[in-house]
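Section 5.1 Outputs to date
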Amino acid sequence: MHINLENLFKLEFVHNIVYLLILKQATQKDVSQYLLQTGCTVGHLNDLKEQGYVKFIKGKKGQTEWQKARLDKKGTEFLNSLDEPEVEEQDIRIFDWLAEQYKKKEKQIGNGKKTKRLIASFREKSGIDKNKLAFLCNEFINDDNEQEYSHKLEYVFFKPDNAFQARFVLESSRLYQYYVNKKSYFDNQFKTL
């Protein structure tokens, strides 16, 4: 499992991540016993509430504060950000090079920051990087059969199937599917790079 350490240390106290991970499952079952086993106090939960990571539901009469605690939107977003790879210099170079190609062809680039994150996610999960990734992208964006998915740079790496799919899924990437369909060709070309 990849953990984005830069995002991890944005949390004031790193041990709080355990509480957030437990609370992620609070909507499905009572997790109060797990919170208590980790030494979580109501004070910890209130601190996380003040930071915007946790909220308390109204609950039922007799429920404890641990039973009423839930992840707030910021807490969910924080946990999701931990799985997102850090954007490296090579990702920025690939983006800049592709953006230049798109400007020449007068095509849309889309959200640059999001595209860089998608490049990093693609690189991390596929294992294809640097010159190999540049070669794969070049083949994809110049393939007439793939114009539907390459008309906007952002969509080269990932286009969600629906409005609710926000997280990168390698198997849903058209670029990755393109690679898999021509795997032997690309693997042979990669050996020469």
